[in-house]
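pinned: reference chain
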Amino acid sequence: MDKFDNEEFESRSRFFINNNISRKIKKSNILFAGCGLNSRIAEFAARTGFQNFSLVDGDNVEVSNLNRQFFDYSDIGKNKATALAKKLKKINPNISTQIVSKYIRMKNFTDFEKHVKSCDFVVNTMDFNEEFFQMNKYVMKMNKVLLIPFSVGFGGVVLVFNHHNKSSISDLNVGKSQNDTDFFRKVLSTLKNYKLPLYINAEEIFDYITKSSLIPQVGIGVVIASSLVVKVMMKSISCSGDIKLYPEVESFDVYT
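pinned: its structure tokens
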């Protein structure tokens, strides 16, 4: 195979992403805590020109992931972080990946701190457990940009934290005994510029989550959430345009 032609790779995006911004993108480091929803975000980031990725996940790919995540049937049973790294390098072989193919737990949390310290952005899609909140707190302590994306129906929502609103990260902590519905209720109660789309009945979806232990998601919602995350990172790098910081959110829905 011929040597990868980065000029050709960027030829279609150069009108929108100038050389100065492109250089900043290439130097940026992104930590993906969880590689489910984050697999699609990482794909979009790679296609935008980002090249430095830390991928953390102890989970394996399952068939139920294929309706929305950046995996295919040949990835079933493989570790998500490892499988994702291979897919990203197929987009751009110049991409550098740090792979951590294990879960983040409180007992080994210090093992992950070096990855946070070396990054510019952290995208946290971990399960809503004690480690999720610990990760958020540590990212804020290190003054990094934290993005927490959600796929909501046929749309997406992203909570954004940086040094301007770092103290508000504690608003998301509902205690060690929280479950998914408690967390979602807490988040919705704190947001200033967002309500669930009219086609989603909050009580019905919370009841579904409680009974099935599944958070319903469709591919297009993941695509929207992923696009919003890359948009925020681009704005942060280029210092262009306002970024809605929590308790406001970046959001978009194609069904409303």
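why pinned: The mean pLDDT is 95. The domain at 6-170+217-253 is CATH 3.40.50.720 (Rossmann fold).
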